[in-house]
Design a protein that fits this description.
By secondary structure, the protein is α/β, with parallel strands linked by helices. It is built from 6 helices and 6 strands; from the N terminus they run βαβααββαβαβα. The protein has helices at residues 10-14, 35-43, 47-54, 91-108, 125-136, 151-154; strands at residues 2-6, 21-27, 64-68, 77-84, 112-115, 144-148. A 6-stranded mixed beta sheet has the order 1-6-5-2-4-3, with helices on one face. α5 (125-136) links the parallel β5 and β6. The radius of gyration is 14 Å and the shape is globular.
């Protein structure tokens, strides 16, 4: 599996032409949306926020949603996975959310994905990197992962997984 790194933000999202899916994590107590989810919502003209407001998707643990990007972002499909309450996020619940996300992506047949590992405000970078390596990467059936992250986080990953 190849792992590449991209900056968080609109420029980073625009550089994701090599992946077929974009994975977002949304907390049920996260309003307004933050990080990559906020940038994607902006690019989708608030579509994700409207779905949250309507209660169609809540961000609860185990909740998932698939949206088309309609050409507003390079990946054709956008998956949102619920984190539960961000205020209660810890390493164990992060690992569970990452495993659930890998399951959702496998069920949809995603071969490549971009994601931002959530929880920087609650879980230290070393625990987030470990959760990515132990919960998501082994469970993801695809061939390529593009990580939306800062360089300090990427340096915590083994060199043989980065390109």
């Amino acid at each position: 599996m190849s792992l590449t790194a991209h900056d968080i933000g609109l420029d980073g999202l625009d550089s994701l032409g090599s992946v077929d899916a974009l994975l977002l994590f949304v907390g049920e107590d996260e309003r307004p949306l933050q990080g990559s989810a906020g940038y994607v919502d902006w690019r989708l003209c608030g579509q994700l926020s409207r779905l949250l407001e309507a209660g169609f998707f809540t961000g609860a643990a185990g909740d998932s949603l698939l949206l088309p990007s309609d050409g507003r972002l390079p990946p054709a499909r956008i998956f949102a996975v619920g984190l539960g309450r961000r205020a209660a996020l810890d390493a164990a619940s992060l690992g569970a959310a990452l495993r659930e996300a890998a399951r959702v992506l496998a069920k949809a047949g995603a071969q490549s994905v971009a994601l931002e590992v959530p929880g920087a405000e609650r879980v230290d970078d070393a625990a987030r990197a470990a959760a990515l390596q132990q919960a998501f990467l082994p469970a993801f059936a695809g061939k390529r992962v593009a990580l939306l992250a800062d360089k300090a986080f990427v340096r915590l990953l083994p060199a043989d997984t980065r390109s």
